[in-house]
Design goal:
Layout lengths: L6 H21 L4 H20 L3 H5 L11
Helix pairs in contact: 1-2
Length: about 70
């Protein structure tokens, strides 16, 4: 599978996803719509961080992962 995210980006996405998930969970009582949006964005960040592939980067022909030298 194509990996277009560098290690630092994957870590950043995982941390940001967890933080957004926690914030979304805490906001549920006051604003349900905002909570759902935060939880979905957090989940997307966690999944893309785990698999190392971002479809948006692919569409933009962008990659933070440098090719390995042989």
């Amino acid at each position: 599978m194509l990996i277009n995210e560098a290690g630092w980006e994957r870590t950043t996405r995982l941390v940001a996803g967890v933080i957004l998930g926690i914030i979304g969970y805490r906001v549920v009582q006051s604003n349900y719509s905002l909570a759902v949006v935060l939880l979905i964005v957090g989940l997307v960040l966690i999944v893309t961080g785990l698999i190392g592939y971002c479809p948006v980067w692919q569409l933009l022909h962008f990659s933070t992962n440098k090719p390995k030298r042989s």
